[in-house]
Write a structure and sequence with these properties.
It is a single chain. The chain is of the alpha+beta class. The chain has one domain: Beta Barrel (Lipocalin), CATH 2.40.128. The protein has a nine-stranded antiparallel beta sheet, with no helix packed on it. The termini are far apart.
Length: 137
Amino acid sequence: MRNRLFVRVFIVACFVAFAAAYGHARQAAGDEFSGQWTGTWEGAGEGKFELVLQKGKDGMTGKVAVTTDGGNYEADLKGAAVAGKDLKATYDFPLDPSAEVAMSASFDGGKAKGTWSLRPKGGGAEVAGGTFALAKK
């Protein structure tokens, strides 16, 4: 009887330790991406690209600042999600209210590389696309 109690207490203690470690790991996911990232983009033109990320209580938030031949703009990220070392996000394209930009990035230490795609809001065929490269500032 005593052995059964010991085994049950041990199992519960292991479960609690695992749950605490898993919760801490989930909470820490994305922390290494927080901060200012600067670099360049190319595709249908080229320019400077700045990404600022913050880990909020509901996940990643952030904004972009982009220079283009058609005008510079800033926009808030929406739908930002981190999975491992990858970030996927979208933002409304300020130079055309009917369009959005979908971006994905892979982070490796203090550097990130990714792709972007300009498309009609709500889906549809890509209008323009390209790549970007960033470094943490």
